[in-house]
Every structure is written in structure tokens, then in C-alpha cells.
Amino acid sequence: MLSLDDIRAAARRIEGVAHRTPVLTSRGLDERAGGRLHLKAENLQRIGAFKFRGAFNCIAQLDDRQRAAGVVASSSGNHAQAVALAATLAGTQAVILMPADAPLSKRAATEALGAEVVEFDRYSDDREALTRELADRSGRTVVHAYDDPRIMAGAGTTAVELIDAVGALDVLVVPLGGGGLISGCAVAAKALAPGVRVVGVEPAASDDGQRSLASGERVRVAVGATIADGQQLPQLGVQTFAVIREHVDEIVTVADHEIVEAMGVLFERLKVVAEPSGASALAAVLAGRVDVAGREVGVVLSGGNIDRGRFAALIAPAGGAA
Amino acid sequence: MLSLDDIRAAARRIEGVAHRTPVLTSRGLDERAGGRLHLKAENLQRIGAFKFRGAFNCIAQLDDRQRAAGVVASSSGNHAQAVALAATLAGTQAVILMPADAPLSKRAATEALGAEVVEFDRYSDDREALTRELADRSGRTVVHAYDDPRIMAGAGTTAVELIDAVGALDVLVVPLGGGGLISGCAVAAKALAPGVRVVGVEPAASDDGQRSLASGERVRVAVGATIADGQQLPQLGVQTFAVIREHVDEIVTVADHEIVEAMGVLFERLKVVAEPSGASALAAVLAGRVDVAGREVGVVLSGGNIDRGRFAALIAPAGGAA
């Protein structure tokens, strides 16, 4: 499966390429939460999210022939920009499949990082099949957004850096979507801080992770409406679930209003910008969903990509109390 | 005057108490600016601004008798919270003189950090005289916001940490208000990176620094309207000007719209929140006011304290292009 050695190897590959992001702390926040929080600020990572770690770790391992053929990924989110930048830095070229109705700003940002964007219709086309077909036809390597040990190992370097910086943790709280981030972080944390409790956080509207861990089987859900667009996935990956089942202690959910509250706290107290999914782990802590009393608690802020208009509307709604 | 030794001593005093703030970089920002920018994120400092460094360095040097008597400062801005927290941490107590029409949130935040707030009328009362009188009557030590070598030395630790982290700089760009931050930073930078060019940045509406450096005398101006409330000062300090005159190479000004542009870039690219004054140095770089082509450039982000409503209105105005 996935080992600490894989994650250590990933850490060597991304060294000097990915940012070693800061760990943020706030006495005021600790008083409010009741534990000592160490916020790993992956919103300050290159392209604004942890996704760059896995994408680069994956693409840096391509051989010459694969590098000449290029890579392909499907995403309208942070994975798109992560793969685009990682491909450019690794001396290859990416094609990104993006829904035709994705925001123009996402498309432009991805192209600016050197990728070619190919549109598909999110309602009529099968994204996975299209990606596979394009890969087969062109010889490009598929870079999956989460269900790949190279992606999981890259994401796990987040926890290695956090524990390097602050020492053993009692609890590690990680946002959960497809499971790439938490699977890598859980393997690293359990190896480096054996007593650590690893808690995943997903939006209540997409609680497949919680159901899957409870039932022991990979449950698929109909995703409801949520502001946490980075976590709107109906099902964990096959490989991520295998790791999660073994290494994650608990999965809790948060409501959108709790995420907004956490985004506001990050703005006001920490002076950083988190996108909704990026603030979800902190939201769970502040909502009392995770037992942190008197503990040393790692919290991953997974991303900060949000349009300024949307950010303003969420944290300072017109006519709102703010 | 002020020496590197004073700043080194301040660095030892604040170690483990002040945050060693991260240095942020962005390839995209570098491409836009044309130089390599190293952003010293003092907006992520305790109380959200560099001011904590000087306040703690000053208050930590009080003797037992002075500590028993307490301190007094006059501020409705970041200095108020800096003195309040530094006093609490150093085992003494602060009285903060604050205008009666200061925002309630500022007052509450200062009180929450352990200070007593005393109101004055900013139109009829003489703030300096009141502070002095209160100090004389109570035996409290005055903690000036900038014109004190202990404050200047504390602020200068910002540049020491920056140069420690990134190596010698070609240019260092620093926001300028009363001159506490730039005087300390200039002394440190000139000693540690002898060829460095130190540039101060002030709002065009308060260009006393630029005029003072040009004329060689401490010029007083009528401060115009600006969003950069941390730099709305009519005149440099006596002691800060003496240092600035000797160690600062140039002072440039920025318009409010240039500051807003920089705040937006910090939000979008770096995922951090800067208050207007805190973004002023970057604003000057992005506006082409500082020659950074091909250079290693330190830029101090001095603070991040801004209400969410005001931040939203500035970076994402209703009906605006954002």
C-alpha cells in the first residue's frame, strides 16, 4: 500500500519546488478552541492548494518517453492548475479536460500555467471515459486527482512537514474529498506520531466518507448543495479508501455556515484566505466536532482559491452583521 | 544612535514571543514585478502587525519598579493592541488613550488583551499632553508608537529575520508612517547587506517623509484623505528622522487605488490579507515606483488588521469589475 518511505521519497522530489508552507498559530484561536492548534497553511502553497504536492510528485516520476508524450487530467478545480504547473516545471505538457461551463477565470489560469484545455459537456459526457480515451489515443499519462499512490504520497508530505515543524501531535484534522490528502497525511502521521488520532472532515452534503468508514464499504452518495466545491465528490477512491479504512480514526461533517464561520476566523485572526473546503477542518474544530481539549492539534488548511467577489459575499454579506 | 547590536538584542528579547513570520514568494508575482520579491509577512505577526515587536522589546526592558507602575500609550490602531498584549505578556499593565470616536471593535480588542482604555476627545484634547500628564501622575512609562530607540530596534528585527531567511537583498521596500519600522529595518539591512537600497513608501496624501528626506528637515504636512490609516501622520519622529536621513535612500508615494490593487494581488496570488498601509510597499513595487528589475527585493507587508466589511468593499466593490 502506501508507506512512510513513499512519502519521504515524495518529500525529496518536491523539495525546493513546492513551498514548505508555514504553520500558523494564534493564542486567541487556541483559547476559543480549547486546544493548541497548529494550522498547516497549504492555502499558501503554489497554485494556492496542497494539490501541487501530489501532481509534482507524480509527474516528476515519468520516464523520458512518458515525459515526451505529456499528461492528461480532468478537473475544473485546484487539480487542474496543479497539474498544469507541475507539468511545465517537470518539462512536459498537460492537457486538462474541463467542463465547458467552468468559470473562464479557471480556464485562463490553467492555460497561463502552460496547459492546453479541452472542453467537455458535464451533463452528457463521461469524464472518466473521455480522459481514458484521450490518454489511450495520445499516449499521455493520466494524472488522477486523488486515487493514485504518487498523488497520495505527495499530499502526505504536508503532514511530514507539519510534524517536523511542531513535533508529535495528539490529533490531526484534515479535509476530506476524494481522500488523497488524508490518506497520505494519515500514513505519515501514524508513522511519525504513533498516538495521533486522525480525523477527516467533509461537508454534511457529501458525507460518503463518514458512511464508508462506518460501514466498511465504499459508499456512493448523491451530493447535495454545499459551498465546499473542493469536496463535492460522491465517493472515495478505491485506493484512498483502503488507506483511510486502516489509518483514519473518525470522519466528521460540517455545515456550510460552520465553514463560513471558520473562513471569517481565518480572515480576522490569522489574516489568511481559505476557500470553503480549505477551511473545513478548522470549521469542525471550532464547531466542537473534534475533541481537542488540552491537545496538540494539527489542522490542515488545504486551499485558498476563491474569487474575491464570492469571498466577500461569504464573509461580509451585504446587509449582514459583519 | 541605533545600531545592529541594539536590534540583535531586541531579536533575543522577542524570540519565542513574537512570531518569526514567514517570507512569501510567488513566481507569478515576480514575473509581473520583474524582480524576485520576498514578502515579509508581518500581517501574520501577533496582533496582526509588526508593532508587537517594538512594543514587546520596549516593555520587556522595564525594571521592577516600572513594571509595577505599568505603561501608557496613545493609539487607536495597531500600536494599541501591540502595547496591550506586550504588557500582559511582560507581567505589567497598560492604559491606552483612545479617541472617543474610535471603532468599538478596536476598543474591545484592546481591552480583551488586558489593557484599560481611557477615552479622549480627538478634536479638543491634546493627545501628547494627556499621555504625558497621565504618565507623570501615575508613574507609568510612556510607550511611544515609533519615536523611541527600543521601538525602532524591535521593528528592525523584521529585516534581520528577512535577510536571515533569504540572504542579502538588493532592495528593501518598507511602509513609512512615523518611521519606526523603516528606521530599524534600514539600520539592520545596511549592516547585514551593505549594498542594499532602502526605499520607504508612504501614501501620496501624507508625503511628509518624501519632503523631509528631500529638504533635509523634518517637514510637517496637512494629511489628506487616504485609505492607509496606519500612515496618516503629519510628521516623522525626531529620532526616526535622524536615522532615516542617514540610512534611507529614497521615499516614494502611492495612490489609494494602487494600494487597493496590491491588496487584491495579495488576496488572489498570496492568499493573505493586508490592511491598506500593510500593502503600500508592494503597491509601490507593482506601480513601478521602485526599480526592481532583475533584483532580489525584500518587501515588508506591515499589517493585516482590517474589518471584513471594509476589506470586501475595497477589493470587491458592489457592482465593481471583480
Which architecture of the largest domain in chain A does the CATH hierarchy give at level 2? 3-Layer(aba) Sandwich
Chain oligomer state: homodimer
Whole-number tally of structural domains of chain A: 2
Q: What is the succession of H and E elements of chain A?
A: HEHEHHEHEHEHEHEHEHHEHHEH
Work out the helix count of chain A: 14
Shape of chain A: globular
At the first level of CATH, what is the class of the largest domain in chain A? Alpha Beta
| Biggest β-sheet description of chain A | 6 strands, mixed
On the 0 to 100 scale, the average pLDDT of chain A is 96
Structural write-up:
- Two copies of one chain form a homodimer.
- Chain A has 322 residues and is an alpha/beta fold.
- Chain A has two domains: 4-50 and 148-319, Rossmann fold (3-Layer(aba) Sandwich); 52-142, Rossmann fold.
- The first copy, chain A, contains 14 helices and ten strands.
- The first copy, chain A, has helices at 4-14, 27-33, 51-59, 64-69, 78-89, 104-112, 127-138, 149-166, 180-192, 208-215, 238-247, 256-270, 280-286, 308-315; strands at 23-24, 36-41, 71-74, 94-99, 116-120, 141-142, 171-175, 197-203, 250-254, 296-301.
- In chain A, the strands form two sheets. Chain A has a six-stranded mixed beta sheet, with helices on both faces.
- In chain A, strand 3, helix 5 and strand 4 form a beta-alpha-beta unit.
- In chain A, helix 1 (4-14) packs across helix 8 (149-166), helix 3 runs parallel beside helix 5 (78-89) and helix 3 (51-59) packs across helix 8.
- The radius of gyration of chain A is 18 Å and the shape is globular.
- The mean pLDDT of chain A is 96.
